[in-house]
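Can you make up a polypeptide sequence alongside its tokenized fold?
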Amino acid sequence: MTLSTAESCTGGGVAAAITSCPGSSDVFKGSVVAYANEIKSSVLAVPESILTEYGAVSEATVRAMAAGVSSLMKTDCAVATSGVAGPGGGTDEKPVGTVWVAAVVAGTLSATLLQLPDRGRDENIKATIINVLEFLKRKLLEL
């Protein structure tokens, strides 16, 4: 099976973790770092109505990002991340450490919310990368 990633808050960190593994070129096709909403919309086909209604850090957005990158790269599997890594950007509703991740595995789209303890930007990003890869692993094992 082939894999692609769509990343916001992880800034390409998931793709970097994947490509650090020997042999990853056999399955990994590529990544889109969609930090700006305009890229989420124009490149990953996230409807602007989703971004307006739910915001970038939302289940609807990461689901659309994962589906979009899977379609764009023509991959069997894809993961997406969008969240608040900090130190700023958090709100009462979406504090620092709020991260949505999604995965497409063999046509099944799933998402989960991470509420990470705020350990600083670098640690929040590292924790997200680990969590999204574990999420993908669980979804693959469910096949």
